[in-house]
Amino acid sequence: MRRLILLGATGSIGTQTLDLLEKDDAFSLVGIAIGHRKSAIPSLIKRFPSIEAVSLLDKDNIEELQGLFPKVRFYFGEDGASRLANETQYDEAVNAIVGFAGLLPSIEVLSKGKVLHLANKESLVVGGQLIGRLIKEKGGRIYPIDSEHAAIAKCLSSIDRKDIDKVILTASGGPFRLMSRMALNGITPAMALAHPTWKMGNKITIDSATMMNKGFEVMEACYLFDIEPEDIDIFIHPQSLVHSGIRLKDGSYILDYGKADMHGPIAYSLSHGEKIEGIRKVSSLDELKDCDFMAYDPARFPAVGLAIDSFKQKGNRGAALNGANEMAVSLFLEGKLPFKEIEKVLEEVLKKIPFDPASTYPLLASYDSLARQEAKAFGN
Ligand code: NDP
Ligand code: MG
Question: Ligand 1: does its nearest atom lie under 6 Å from the Cβ of 10?
């Protein structure tokens, strides 16, 4: 049995991972990290009695929990998840924490040369270069959970790289894809949280509405598959049935097709890329009668271009963009920033923070804080 830790166990990806682990005797869940939803801990330990270590953000109630579960090691605080990843014995980790907070745990797992099932795309957006170096030095491995990247990995496994014309990254376009930028005045958090095809955590749902998520996914794909943004074509595909794929030089496509359900990509990642289902080969996209594909408009969704520039510049750019975005999304969700202003905040913060080629964790963390501070000034 493979010993597994699950970081972000109470979230959207975390709970779907738990569904799969419950039915899979290849894994023994030995550690979990959560954020604030501590009321979930007793039922999670009862459901998975193999849990030896738990991390949570708040210290309150920790003595009560320790009394209830004397054999479990508890960690708390912002560094709890990474300390758990450092001190627990495990073979593989799922990182489903949201945001910059996921980077240090990813570094911890890969510093041990372990297998990382990665949902936390921000780890690569902010620390792609650092993570690349760690994998080279320590021999760890990433299996992506993000549906587009799991799809691309599936498609790549069946072809020769020299036959590839483009990597095709699909995007639902979010709930406002048919609205002009002018029409975006008055968008409320409830409107932006109503994603047409995927049910996800709040932060990624807002990132989908601005297409910041697609920009981050371009960066993620470039780091994961060692490609450049020019190797990728983004298509708006509102039905979310094609999860991404490859166009070959002969004009045909290899695509991952199936319903929008994250259990599939998570299972694919946990199987180390063995569980290949849903691949379709078509000579033209018109063969997929239930799917529409449209070019995306860079002027309508400026966040994608900001991500591409950040990837090209490297250094502190990913940290600055991601930190500004996390703060801008929080401000929007708190009603302190209009939806339409999110991208403007990103542009302004990137202009204010000078380029620094450094990519050590302490420096990335300092640029994350600086970007949040600069972005916060735009809130009212
Ligand atoms: P959720 O908001 O649903 O869940 C986030 C998880 O992270 C929760 O368990 C939360 O704990 C925990 N968490 C938050 N902050 C911290 C912290 N500082 N330390 C430790 N744990 C923390 O997010 P999603 O599941 O939607 O997304 C998780 C990641 O997966 C993101 O990076 C997202 O981009 C990526 N992803 C998600 C997809 C989806 O379908 N949801 C699809 C593809 C990628 P608590 O709730 O207890 O506070
Ligand atoms: Mg995705």
Answer: yes
The atom number, within ligand 1, closest to the CA of 198 reads 40
Distance 247 CA to ligand 1 centre (A): 32
Structure-token pair, residue 281: 């080969």
Residue nearest to ligand 1 atom 45, measured at CA: 35
Q: Are 121 and 203 in contact (CB under 8 A)?
A: no
Residue 303: its H or E element: helix 302-313
Closest protein CA for atom 10 of ligand 1: 35
Tokens for 242?
């094609």
Query: Which DSSP string corresponds to 145-188?
Result: -SHHHHHHHHHHTTS-GGGEEEEEEEE---TTTTS-SGGGTT--
Q: Where are the alpha helices (DSSP H) in the chain?
A: 12-22, 41-47, 62-68, 80-87, 103-111, 122-138, 147-156, 189-193, 202-210, 212-225, 263-270, 302-313, 317-333, 342-352, 361-376
Decide: 121 in ligand 1 pocket, CB within 6 A: yes
Tell me, yes or no, if the pTM score tops 0.90.
yes
Q: Cα(first)–Cα(last) distance of the chain, in Å?
A: 52
pLDDT, one tens digit for every residue, the chain (380 residues): 999 999 999 999 999 999 999 999 999 999 999 999 999 999 999 999 999 999 999 999 899 999 999 999 999 999 999 999 999 999 999 999 999 999 999 999 999 999 999 999 999 999 999 999 999 999 999 999 999 999 999 999 989 999 999 999 999 999 999 999 889 999 999 999 998 888 899 999 999 999 999 999 999 999 999 999 999 999 999 999 999 999 999 999 999 999 999 999 999 999 999 988 899 999 999 999 999 999 999 999 999 999 999 999 999 999 999 999 999 999 999 999 999 999 999 999 999 999 999 899 999 999 999 999 999 999 98
